[in-house]
Design goal:
Helices cover 38% and strands 13% of the residues of chain A. Chain A contains 15 helices and eleven strands. An eleven-stranded mixed beta sheet of chain A has the order 1-3-2-4-6-5-10-11-9-7-8, with helices on both faces. The longest helix of chain A is centred in the last third of the chain and has 25 residues. Chain B has 479 residues and is α+β, with helices and mostly antiparallel strands. Chain B has 16 helices and 15 strands. In chain B, the strands form four sheets. An eight-stranded mixed beta sheet of chain B has the order 5-6-9-1-10-11-12-13. Chain B has a three-stranded antiparallel beta sheet with strand order 4-3-14, with no helix packed on it. A two-stranded antiparallel sheet of chain B has the order 2-15. Classes of the chains: A alpha/beta (483), B alpha+beta (479). The interface between A and B is large, with 45 and 28 residues.
Chain lengths: 483, 479
């Protein structure tokens, strides 16, 4: 039952093959059985079974929502009413959210069953899930390796069949990179497509929530429920949400694919290059035209990102001050002591590093040289993408330079860790939608193919991904011990 | 030789906009609620919440900009001003920095009969912070976030004022304007209209400005004048005794009538302003500007000119009657309801009505005499039912009761004697009884006439028309 996709489960639920309560209980059992993966921070057994019961009643009443009764995992960055919402931080270890994020509300309305809250890098700052206060989540393909991050808990949960699907958020690659390292499908929508209300902010101008699933069809179903304008989020875009399932089967004849030569350099692992070449050939066989393009500003993405994201986070994280909610130090001597010790004791190393970088970049005398310069670079990168996407329908490339790395391997070297997002960060700076789909294995570890599309062109991305998944079975592989 | 000093003053005025809900949330802005009952998730700065701009606040800012002939920015940007304070929930205040919504404008003030134009550099939208409460918390501090997120328009003047008097005139003019525009209730006790003053001195003739001190949060016209004058004296004293004025923020202590240092420039925060990524730039179209322009009320200056032309008022009474929109509306309602000569109405308004209000410490909106009841009185003066003198008695009764002028006149028997025969008899009687004053008048002493009129009025218990009596008396004496 736990190997079925959303679409298959929806059919089974309606055919009476199993109930949502049975399905949910099966997943809850698996979660507890595989707790060593450390995918979940909080498992909401009781709430899940209640929701499953309600879902069964709805289905009996003729409800048609594809998500009704489907057990999902919520990244612990989304506020969930009455449920602990930690954002992977000691700072929020005691925080029970008094409201639901818009995404959570929407999924509740769609009838989904929440199994619990999944692990993540602290405040979404990290590419390995190792910065979590709750310890690293393990990659089910090799438990000595990382699942990627920051949505590592989501990726592991879906790959290890500890949830049918999961929500993730992507600020610099946080959906796509873990999706690639765990062999699942992840989609970062266009900035503004999914509401950020109730999604704890890391870098507001880059953060975007999206689906993490077994395949493209499930991603379409989950995105359908998550997307849409929200009057509580000024940056969400008031544009109708298309039917993401409608175009899945469109043939790819004549599809124009661009391959930026800056993506395929010596930095890319040789096996990775070969894997991608095989994947691209599948597209050629399906009738796509492939051409090389050039995007010279891509190399500036990482430095620009590591000015903009920390600058925004330095302000976004100021509200965690020990005054109104979250961690407060013991017996503060005075106000300054309350601030310094509460923040000093509750924030982890990586979070502190980014707050310091951001504070520095915004300081008087440095603002123009860093923040303004980075914004200019951001504009150039966007223009590069715009020009490229005027010539081609989608851009393809790697998601990561290599497959999953070992736990602890890069923790001591933040720069090397930052470089693992080299192929994903530019897309966030431009605000474009992009997907990661499973495209093969290197040393028994999954690798992903990245598909980047034009603004609000998620339907095309899903179509391009789905067609590939009709001729390949990488997305159907299950890690050993989790079949 | 002693140096002659010139003062340079610029004011930053925070006006609380009279919106129903907060600038970035749906919580109410009403004053005086139980602590923390008017602070929603957004005001508390909970994890994950986002601001959504209140369109009404934008409209009010544009209204103000148009009223001071300012440039309205087609594109303005909200920025985060970062600092830690317990009553600042997010650890930053959403304000505007590089691109404020209102640019260069001006306001004309009048001091000692001279008109002076004061430049307004900018006006920008921002959210207010909450309040720290230090009483009744046993050495701890309480936080009330009801005020957090209340919309403010910060209006920054050019350093164009040269005396405390000019600063007060500017502040009063601005206070009058925002109330006219109905964008601020102007309540200074509740903090709806607060002022920071930048003050410096320089030797007369020197082109460069002196080093300035900023005096924070002066919340009455009286304190602004006192605080500035005190600060001017302090700075001159510092310089004349060989010292230097340091750039700093000072706090005015109304109880001690002095300013004291809060923090120096070196201690000043680096606020690390940057555009708030949670909010889109505010785009103001020409169309929107036109819509707002069409709803602008008549502004104080235009109203004053109209009062002079339409009602034949002198400069002084027109200025008085247009000093607030409520007062002007009251006056116009009286004129309309009574149909009497505008001059009669303005004499009563600027004299008896404002006098009584002042004495009682009331605003025009709290006047116990409504425009209708005052109009009822003025009608009876105009049609000679009562004399002006009797009218004052009637007005006292209007003020202290609920009866109409007609009811009072009827009940008290105050109706003027209109029977000329009856008056004539009394006039004759008084002439016969006062040969002395009659002789004096006839020998050219006009003053003697007043004594005779007085006698007649006394005989008639004030119910004769003094004008008529005067006329009749002169006719009889000269005839």
């Amino acid at each position: 039952m736990y190997n079925l996709t959303i679409a298959e489960l929806a059919k089974g639920l309606r055919a009476g093959e199993f109930s949502s309560v049975e399905l949910t209980q099966t997943y809850l059992n698996r979660i507890h059985q595989h707790s060593a993966l450390n995918a979940y921070v909080t498992v909401t057994d009781e709430l899940a079974l209640q929701q499953a019961q309600a879902a069964d009643a709805k289905i009996a009443g003729g409800d048609t929502s594809l998500l009704t009764g489907i057990p999902i995992a919520q990244k612990d960055i989304f506020c969930t009413l009455g449920v602990k919402t930690t954002c992977g931080s000691k700072m929020l270890d005691n925080f029970i959210a008094p409201y639901n994020a818009t995404v959570v509300d929407k999924l509740n309305q769609a009838g989904a069953v929440m199994l619990g809250k999944v692990n993540m890098d602290e405040f979404a700052m990290g590419s390995s899930n190792e910065t979590s206060y709750y310890g690293p989540t393990k990659n089910p393909w090799n438990t000595g390796t990382v699942p990627g991050g920051s949505s590592g808990g989501s990726a592991t949960a879906v790959a290890a069949r500890l949830a049918v699907c999961a929500t993730g958020t992507d600020t610099g690659g946080s959906i796509r990179q873990p999706a690639a390292l765990c062999g699942i499908t992840g989609l970062k929508p266009t900035y503004g497509r999914v509401s950020r209300y109730g999604m704890i902010a890391y870098a507001s101008s880059l953060d975007q929530g999206g689906p993490m699933t077994r395949n493209a069809e499930d991603a379409a179903i989950l995105l359908q429920a998550m997307a849409g304008f929200d009057d509580k989020d000024s940056t969400s875009v008031d544009q109708p949400v298309p039917d993401y399932l409608a175009d899945l089967n469109k043939p790819l004849t004549g599809l124009k694919i661009g391959l930026p030569k800056e993506f395929f350099t010596a930095d890319l692992n040789g096996d990775m290059a070969a894997t991608l070449e095989t994947a691209i050939n599948h597209y050629r066989q399906m009738g796509a035209e492939v051409k090389e393009i050039s995007m010279p500003t891509l190399k500036m993405a990482i430095p620009a990102y590591y000015v903009i994201a920390p600058a925004e986070c330095s302000a976004n994280l100021s509200r965690f001050d020990g005054v109104r909610f979250g961690y407060r130090c013991e017996n503060p001597a005075d106000l300054a002591d309350l601030y310094t010790r509460s923040r000093g004791e509750a924030f982890g190393k990586e979070v502190k590093r980014r707050i310091l970088m951001g504070t520095y970049a915004l300081s008087a005398g440095y603002y123009d040289a860093y923040y303004i310069k980075a914004q200019k670079v951001r504009r150039l990168i966007s223009d590069d993408f715009k020009n490229a996407l005027a010539e081609v329908d989608v851009i393809m490339g790697p998601v990561t330079p290599m497959p999953a790395f070992g736990i602890g391997e890069k923790l001591a070297n933040p720069i090397e860790m930052y470089l693992s997002d080299i192929y994903t960060i530019a897309i966030n700076l431009a605000g474009l939608p992009a997907m990661s789909i499973p495209a093969g294995f290197i040393n028994d570890l999954p690798v992903g193919l990245q598909i980047i599309g034009n603004y609000f062109d998620e339907a095309r991305l899903l179509n391009v991904a789905h067609q590939y998944q009709q001729v390949t079975d990488w997305h159907q592989q299950t890690p050993k011990g989790f079949e | 030789m002693t140096t002659q000093w010139e003062t340079v003053i610029g004011l930053e005025i925070h006006t609380q906009l009279a919106t129903k809900s907060k600038i970035f949330s749906g919580a109410s802005t009403a004053y005086g609620a139980e602590p923390n009952t008017q602070a929603c998730a957004v005001d508390l700065g909970l994890p994950g919440v986002l601001p959504v701009l209140n369109e009404q606040a934008v409209r009010m800012a544009v209204t103000f900009g148009l009223a001071i002939d300012a440039h309205i920015a087609p594109h303005s940007v909200f920025a985060r001003k970062n600092y830690f304070y317990p009553d600042l929930p997010k650890g930053y205040q959403i304000s505007q920095m590089d691109l404020p919504i209102v640019g260069n404008g001006h306001l004309d003030i009048e001091v000692d009969g001279e008109i002076k134009r004061i430049g307004i550099t900018r006006a920008h939208l921002e959210e207010d912070a909450g309040k720290s409460l230090h009483e009744n918390f046993h050495g701890m501090t309480g936080i009330d976030l009801n005020r957090a997120g209340t919309p403010l328009l910060e209006i920054v003047s050019e350093p164009d004022m040269r005396s405390a008097k000019e600063a007060v005139a500017y502040m009063r003019k601005l206070h009058e304007l925002v109330r006219y525009l109905e964008i601020c209730d102007g309540n200074m006790q509740e903090g709806s209209f607060r002022c920071d003053a930048n003050v410096s001195v320089r030797p007369i003739g020197q082109a460069e400005f002196g080093t300035r001190a900023e005096i924070k949060n002066i919340n009455s016209f009286k304190f602004v004048e006192k605080a500035i004058n005190h600060e001017i004296e302090r700075q001159i004293e510092v310089i004349e005794s060989g010292g230097k004025v340091v750039q700093e923020t000072r706090l005015y202590d109304a109880n001690k009538d002095e300013t004291r240092s809060m923090r120096s420039k070196e201690e000043a925060n680096d606020y690390r302003y940057f555009p708030d990524p949670d909010l889109l730039p505010v785009v103001i179209s020409d169309e929107f500007k036109e819509i707002v322009k069409a709803t602008l009320p008549e502004l104080p200056h235009a109203k004053k000119q109209r009062f002079i032309e339409q009602y034949g008022q002198d400069e002084e009474s027109a200025t008085t009657l247009t000093s607030s929109r409520e007062l002007a509306d009251f006056y116009e309602a009286v004129v309309k309801d009574s149909g009497v000569e505008a001059k009669l109405a303005s004499n009563w308004m600027t004299g008896d009505v404002l006098g009584a209000l002042n004495k009682a410490g009331l605003e025009i909106s709290q006047s116990p005499v409504s425009p209708e009841r005052l109009a009822g009185l003025l009608k009876r003066i105009a049609d000679n039912t009562i004399s002006g003198r009797t009218a004052k008695q009637v007005f006292d009764k209007l003020w202290n009761g609920t009866a109409t002028a007609d009811e009072i006149i009827e009940q008290e028997g105050l109706k003027q004697i209109t029977d000329t025969g009856a008056i004539e008899a009394i006039v004759d009687k008084v002439i016969a009884a006062n040969p002395g004053p009659v002789e004096q008048y006839l020998s050219g002493k006009d003053k003697a006439l007043m004594a005779l009129v007085g006698q007649i009025m006394k005989e008639t218990q004030g119910k004769a028309n003094p004008g008529e009596v005067n006329k009749m008396l002169i006719e009889k004496l000269k005839g």
